[in-house]
């Protein structure tokens, strides 16, 4: 075998000292009203996708426990967030921008002290490699800092008065209310913070619901949240999502839903809100991003990008390349190079240097992927790479499938894992028609040199997806670029600047341009009587 995945489970003594979890984390508390409140009820066990080899066989590693809160407690937490917002009159929403920035900076300083602990938990809880876990943490910190800089710039622009048609006005942004933040398991820290941080700094109060996997990475941060922000501004909701989240939405007291996951769950949550016209949604949803490899593509570069784009973190990224359309004239060479590239990837434990293929956090995922592969094989596809599709426990070795047809599930379903479907084409209208008919519209990658063909593809795809990558894999970065999607792939645009706007609303204070009104406004500004009506700005 290329990768003997059934023999990958380490013994306890083989785990590097610095990456061991010596004792399971017992988190029997949650954050509410500025305190870590003890929880005497049921706890959910948090197991790692990593299995440990023992004399009696491999055993799944227990890494901790977390609260299974009840619906009643979730409602209590919601009430605290509502009270902290207090119809926009609470301490946090009326605080100056500069003061809110200082709170976030205090939190960031505390976050940095937890880097090693969080990186270790990312490895154990979701099977993320050491390098990718460190990258996620560091990118989160950069995102926070970039958000604060963008807020300062927004505040500078908003600090001036304008006079139009005899009306004096100042236009600033105000918060929306209570925000429910729900991040995904694949980037539990970074993706959660891409909604939580902009929502916070704009003056909203927060309900943080950790994802199903990645729940314990927030445990080291609860004290930092408690100490950095006024009581009730950040609160955590633990428990089964189906138990605690729908009632929160049905209450009508959640003003913004910041959710990253599947469109089916997002639609279900949105549908139970009693006033959907008052609910703002910021959603990052499903994707089936295609790669289109033209006959004149630089195959060395295209294959390298496609392997990284489809298999980084085992393909568990919304921006991953999830289907590949390859011109028939180069298909044999492409498949040969892809198979060789996959065979060169290292599989193993997350802390091993240079590892790419690691355990999958979802217990049901290997069986699901196996089902996709068997369905494709039954309908005429073959596994191109040696040992493709072999699984053991939480490991699934990547499977390169060819030729894939519309009759196969993998053609349309988002696999969110290491299965790579390849479709041959003769005419570029074929991949274009696929993208047009698709329910998803996040990104696409095109590889080639012919500028006429590239231009034709760009013009055909710009009204179907929201980002077209030329000779590079799909991705979210840089965070200054808009990140969004069409169709079932997103609702709302995220970027460092866009996120500040989407979690706030423009407010105008206006007065007719008279001498008396000029004096009134000048007095308010000069004597700093209002946080909102002000010409102060942050350097």
If you had to describe this structure to a student in words, what would you say it looks like?
- The chain is α/β, with parallel strands linked by helices and 539 residues long.
- It has 2 domains: 280 residues, Aldehyde Dehydrogenase, Chain A, domain 1, CATH 3.40.605; 203 residues, Aldehyde Dehydrogenase, Chain A, domain 2.
- Helix content is 37%, strand content 23%.
- The chain has 17 helices and 27 strands.
- The longest helix has 29 residues.
Summarize the structure.
The chain has 539 residues and is an alpha/beta fold. Helices cover 37% and strands 23% of the residues.
Total strand segments: 27
CATH class of the largest domain: Alpha Beta
Q: Unreliable stretches, pLDDT < 50, 5 or more residues?
A: none
Assembly level: single chain
| Number of discrete domains | 2
Query: What's the pLDDT, averaged over the residues?
Result: 95
Shape call:
globular
Strand residue percentage? 15-25%
Q: Walk across the major sheet and give the strand order.
A: 17-20-21-14-13-23-24
State the secondary-structure class: alpha/beta
Largest sheet: 7 strands, mixed
Tell me what the CATH architecture of the largest domain is.
3-Layer(aba) Sandwich
What gyration radius follows from the Cα positions, in whole Å?
A: 25 Å
Tell me the CATH superfamily of the largest domain: Aldehyde Dehydrogenase, Chain A, domain 1
Instruction: Write down the CATH topology of the largest domain.
Output: Aldehyde Dehydrogenase, Chain A, domain 1
Distance between the termini: 60 Å
The total of helices stands at 17
* Share of helix, binned: 25-40%
């Amino acid at each position: 075998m290329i990768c003997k995945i059934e023999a990958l489970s380490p013994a306890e003594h083989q785990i590097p000292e610095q990456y061991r979890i010596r004792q399971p984390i017992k988190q029997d508390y949650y954050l509410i009203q500025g305190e870590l409140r003890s929880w005497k009820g049921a706890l959910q066990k948090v197991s790692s996708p990593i299995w440990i080899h023992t004399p009696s066989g491999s055993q799944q590693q227990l890494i901790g426990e977390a609260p299974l809160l009840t619906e009643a407690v979730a409602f209590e937490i919601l009430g605290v967030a509502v009270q902290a917002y207090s119809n926009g009159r609470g301490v946090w929403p009326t605080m100056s921008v500069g003061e809110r920035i200082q709170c976030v900076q205090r939190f960031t300083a505390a976050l940095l002290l937890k880097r090693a602990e969080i990186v270790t938990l990312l490895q154990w809880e979701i099977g993320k490699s050491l390098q990718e876990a460190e990258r996620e943490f560091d990118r989160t910190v950069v995102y926070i800092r970039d958000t604060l800089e963008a807020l300062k710039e927004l505040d500078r622009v908003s600090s001036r008065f304008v006079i139009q048609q005899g009306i004096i006005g100042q236009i600033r942004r105000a918060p929306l209310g209570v925000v429910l933040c729900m991040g995904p398991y694949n980037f539990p820290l970074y993706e959660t913070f891409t909604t939580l941080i902009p929502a916070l700094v704009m003056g909203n109060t927060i309900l943080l619901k950790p994802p199903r996997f990645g729940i314990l990475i927030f445990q080291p941060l609860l004290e930092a949240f408690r100490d950095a922000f006024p009581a009730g501004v950040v609160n955590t909701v633990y428990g089964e999502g189906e138990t605690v989240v729908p009632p929160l939405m049905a209450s009508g007291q959640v003003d913004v839903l910041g959710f990253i996951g599947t469109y089916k769950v997002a639609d279900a949550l949105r549908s139970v809100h009693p006033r959907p016209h008052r609910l703002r949604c910021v959603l990052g949803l499903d994707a089936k991003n295609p790669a289109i490899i033209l006959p004149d593509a630089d195959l060395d570069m295209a294959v390298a990008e496609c392997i990284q784009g489809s298999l980084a973190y085992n393909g568990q990224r919304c921006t991953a390349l999830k289907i590949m359309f390859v011109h028939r004239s180069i298909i044999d060479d492409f498949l040969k190079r892809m198979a060789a590239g996959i065979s060169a990837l290292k599989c193993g434990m997350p802390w091993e240097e240079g590892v790419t293929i690691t355990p999958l956090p979802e217990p049901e995922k290997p069986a699901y992927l196996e089902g996709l592969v068997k369905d494709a094989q039954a309908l005429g596809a073959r596994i191109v790479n040696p040992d493709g599709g072999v699984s053991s426990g939480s490991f699934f070795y990547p499977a390169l499938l060819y030729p894939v047809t519309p009759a196969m599930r993998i053609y349309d379903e988002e696999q969110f894992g290491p299965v790579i479907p390849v479709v041959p084409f003769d005419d570029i209208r074929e991949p274009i028609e696929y993208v047009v008919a698709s329910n998803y519209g996040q990104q696409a990658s095109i590889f080639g040199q012919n500028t006429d063909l590239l231009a034709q593809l760009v013009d055909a795809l710009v009204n179907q997806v929201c980002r077209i990558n030329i000779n590079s894999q799909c991705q979210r970065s840089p965070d200054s670029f808009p990140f969004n999607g069409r169709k079932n792939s997103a609702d709302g645009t995220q970027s460092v600047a866009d996120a500040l706007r989407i979690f706030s609303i423009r407010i105008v204070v206006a007065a007719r341009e008279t001498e008396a009104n000029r004096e009134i406004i000048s007095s308010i500004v000069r004597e700093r009587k209002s946080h909102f009506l002000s010409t102060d700005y942050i350097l």
